[in-house]
Q: What sequence folds into this?
């Protein structure tokens, strides 16, 4: 009898009530999105405040999995040192592997050593060669990408995986489409990149999906001194400034 009495007392939900429930759920989701906007904004503000104080810098990309003492680890350390000798600080993704090697070279040469880290469930903890006041850890990849592009006077791209390729082709696309001020993009490690470049020439250029001049948007070398000279020669006629 009690259960029957409770059923009789329960309010009858109308179609209007159900519609109000849907609207309330949508409102709560919208509020979550609005707070997400503020979290993203806070990351941009932190990045701008920290990186706008830097002088000219070069960003070095590459695999987080490259081991200390390996050929490309040592190459990244050497190229970072060479850029510091030519008056540039070094920006890396802040993690291990090539990123660590780049920060190590900058530190050893007495230059600014910057880490733009990303919060990941694996692979990515900050390396010990970053200046303590120049380490930023982001939650969102797209905010981190903006910082790399805005404050780097050049990109040096060492051997790496999908993340490295993402940065490489995005930077080429931004220059190609004139969405940023042109800046030098340098591939290092000829034997690593030659297969990809052969495919770009034999397939993409042959099919007309890129222009012949697009291949001039980047350079390739094994020599740290040559990489530094490409950048210093470029800025003999162009003023150092943020890229957008």
A:
């Amino acid at each position: 009898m009690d259960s029957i009495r409770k059923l009789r007392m329960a309010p009858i939900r109308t179609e209007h009530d159900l519609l109000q429930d849907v609207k309330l759920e949508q409102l709560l989701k919208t509020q979550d999105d609005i707070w997400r906007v503020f979290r993203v904004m806070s990351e941009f503000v932190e990045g701008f405040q920290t990186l706008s104080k830097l002088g000219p810098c070069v960003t070095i990309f590459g695999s987080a999995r490259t081991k200390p003492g390996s050929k490309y680890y040592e190459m990244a350390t050497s190229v970072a040192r060479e850029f510091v000798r030519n008056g540039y600080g070094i920006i890396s993704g802040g993690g291990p592997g090539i990123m660590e090697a780049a920060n190590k070279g900058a530190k050893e040469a007495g230059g600014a050593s910057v880490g733009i880290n990303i919060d990941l469930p694996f692979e990515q903890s900050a390396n010990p060669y970053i200046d303590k006041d120049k380490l930023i850890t982001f939650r969102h990849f797209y905010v981190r990408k903006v910082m790399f592009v805005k404050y780097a006077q050049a990109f040096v791209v060492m051997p790496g995986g999908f993340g490295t390729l993402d940065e490489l082709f995005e930077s080429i696309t931004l220059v190609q489409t004139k969405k940023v001020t042109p800046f030098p993009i340098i591939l290092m490690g000829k034997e690593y990149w030659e297969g990809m470049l052969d495919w770009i020439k034999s397939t993409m250029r042959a099919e007309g999906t890129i222009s012949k001049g697009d291949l001039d948007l980047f350079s390739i070398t094994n020599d740290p001194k040559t990489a530094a000279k490409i950048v210093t020669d470029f800025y003999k006629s162009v003023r150092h400034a943020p890229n957008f």
User: Anything to note?
Assistant: The CA atoms of residues 70 and 97 lie 10 Å apart. Residues 54-234 form a domain with the Rossmann fold fold (CATH 3.40.50.450). The radius of gyration is 24 Å. Helices lie at 2-9, 15-51, 71-85, 98-108, 141-151, 162-176, 190-207, 224-234.
